[in-house]
Amino acid sequence: MAGGGGGAAAERVAAAVEAAAAASGGWEFRNAYRRQLLALSRRIRLLGPFAEELREARGGAAEGEEEERERALAPLADALEMALDLLRLGRDGSRIFLVLERDNIMKKFQGVIAQLEQALCDIPYDKLDISDEVREQVELVHAQLRRAKERADMPDDEFYNDVLSLYNKSYDPSAELDILQRLSEKLHLVTITDLTQESLALHEMVASGGGQDPGEHIEKMSMLLKKIKDYVQTQNPEMGPPIGTKLMDSNGEPRPVNIPDEFRCPISLELMKDPVIVATGQTYERVCIEKWLASGHHTCPNTQQRMTNTTLTPNYVLRSLIAQWCEANGIEPPKRSLQPNKPTLACSSSERANIDALLCQLCSPDPEEQRSAAAELRLLAKRNANNRICIAEAGAIPLLLSLLSSSDLRTQEHAVTALLNLSIHEDNKASIISSGAVPSIVHVLKNGSMEARENAAATLFSLSVIDEYKVTIGGTGAIPALVVLLSEGSQRGKKDAAAALFNLCIYQGNKGRAIRAGLVPLIMGLVTNPTGALMDEAMAILSILSSHPEGKAAIGAAEPVPVLVEMIGSGSPRNRENAAAVMLHLCFGEQQLVHLARAQECGIMVPLRELALNGTERGKRKAVHLLERMSRFLVQQQEEKEAQLLASAQAIPQIPEQVQETDIPEQLDSPSPQYPTVA
């Protein structure tokens, strides 16, 4: 064939099709979307011959034609990579989470199908020199995708409603066993291994985001999983109690055991062998929390609070209680490993060889090879903790940093996103900072494509969770660039910028930088935005900035009291407490009387009393302090009024004493004229 397929894009298309073929043959989709996932992987697999012809035909075209084909195939490569991400989500994601997120997951399916269909529609076959037979097969896939785009293939409604009813505790108690039986079968949660894997996947997905308050989300889903697990063990006594326990009846047969919730690890839901306490005060099985931390997480799985350190303290009291409970119930106490098993994080030799080859391509003088290698490293680093560790250990970070100044915006985008994915692992954060990465990341934040700027902001957010790095990042000009992105970026870019700014402004020295960069008027605009977009982020930032003298002055100049009073009365729980915190700061200082008087005019007392009764713990404290401050102000106002009235009364001339009747003479000497006479 004389023609040639696009270089890097053709390779990306071929790689994605090969991965989809593996998904179709070896991946298990044991969830509510099995039919949709298999259909998607099958359609991509049908593009195999097309990908092969593209790969075989690479090269041989003029430079201008090669660039044109690259542009033509890039949308298809992007769409296929999106499809692969969705397939991986279906393979690795929590089954319960995926059902509860039905609407979002179906939007992802529709988005992927629409993007694939559009990409295939725009393929210039005449310029790719594809055989007629392969073209017909691609057109067949295109027709299938067009039909799929026109109709939504929704999962089982009964399935969704069953999960939702248990999640919200809105089911008929008499129907609970039937619901649990259906869910156990449809979710393929029938063995201890299934249930343990689901628990780990559930925590992983909730920690990665999901729209709702993660603390409440994971607690409810963990309880739902526990119900299913208890049901499965009750219905299948031969499964026995959790691993490491043995409970026999009088005939020597295994019998089910009801383990107290406080003895179960919140991650695995198993009886704990070696309970340890983390920085937030929560207790976990050592092996499970070590695996969680090794995956790059820095939050507590149960509470989603940031852990100030990763120290694991043995919970000797709980371990003793578990041993006593086991003895009382005739169970063999779980044996603790002398050396706790840590998850194996080393790459295989073939994986390491692949990473080394990609790093060689990063050093290539060929821009296409650099771009392709950066894109592949980006995907590998996104996939799992093992890859993040191996890629960093192989020396990728300095090489990726050198590409942040690339004139090729796509290469730059891949490089900064790869660094973002690497930074998820705690140890890699230190390597990135020590490599002097921040100025280069800020360069991308200022000058890159919109997606690159978004991911640069997200990288700064990821790095800024370490307190000492807040100082480093704040001193490199990152804050003004983040303020600009918050002002003019895409919705995702604004969200990433807001998250990074919030983290950075926790450090007092960065607050002044943010205020001088014009952050306060921008935040006040978001707070008063009728759409409510980024309201939570804006209120959190406003609360932090109000503790700074310059911030308080800037906020006070923006006439904030009416919107703060309204927020205290009708905002979300977190926004109400932040509004009260801002108001409390304003009510101390030079302009306090102005703000207190304005708050009184806006009727702040009623919502404050309600917040003091029904708010969050922090909200209640702020409301009580504000009520005390308002009460003192009102007493002061009353005293001033009374003092003014008294002063006014003293200024009025004395009224003569009342004339007695006996003092009036019977006859006046001369009548008093009614009007004065004119001389």
Uncertain regions spanning at least 5 consecutive residues: 1-6, 210-215, 240-250, 338-345, 664-679
User: In which range does the helix fraction lie?
Assistant: 55-70%
Binned strand content: under 5%
End-to-end separation in angstroms reads 130 Å
Helical region count?
34
Label the overall shape.
globular
Largest pleated sheet: 3 strands, antiparallel
Written overview of the protein:
- Keywords: Repeat, Transferase, Ubl conjugation pathway.
- ARM repeats lie at residues 395-437.
- Residues 656-679 are annotated as: Disordered.
- GO terms for molecular function: ubiquitin protein ligase activity.
- This is RING-type E3 ubiquitin transferase.
- α1 packs parallel to α4, α16 packs parallel to α19 and α21 runs parallel beside α24 (478-488).
- The chain starts with 6 loop residues before the first helix and ends in a 28-residue tail after the last helix.
- It is 66% helix and 1% strand.
- The radius of gyration is 34 Å and the shape is globular.
- By secondary structure, the protein is mainly α.
- It has helices spanning 7-26, 34-45, 48-56, 63-92, 95-100, 102-121, 125-128, 132-150, 157-168, 176-186, 192-207, 214-235, 286-294, 316-328, 349-362, 367-383, 385-393, 396-402, 409-422, 426-434, 438-447, 450-463, 467-474, 478-488, 491-505, 508-516, 519-527, 535-545, 549-556, 561-570, 573-586, 592-601, 605-614, 617-651; strands at residues 275-277, 283-285, 313-314.
- Strands 2-1-3 form a three-stranded antiparallel β-sheet.
- Residues 1-6, 210-215, 240-250, 338-345 and 664-679 have low confidence and may be disordered.
- It contains 34 helices and three strands.
